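The authors assume throughout that readers already know how a fold can be written as discrete tokens. Each protein is reduced to its one-letter sequence and a matching series of backbone shape codes. I therefore recommend that a typical entry be quoted early in the introduction. For illustration, here is how one protein appears when written out as sequence plus structure tokens:
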Amino acid sequence: MAGPNLTPDHYDTWLDPHHHDTGELCALLVQPADGQLNAQPVSMAVNSVRNNGAHLLDALT
């Protein structure tokens, strides 16, 4: 799946809850270097801030 990416130097701006200029925020998105963004299904546990750990990135099979 190809799609836009956000570089680490833009994280603070992207996550700022007071930043509402969608045009400016969309301008922060860039195409990944290799043109690919991989998506995979993961556990619903990622939806809770109480959960933490690398296991949250494991793909569901």
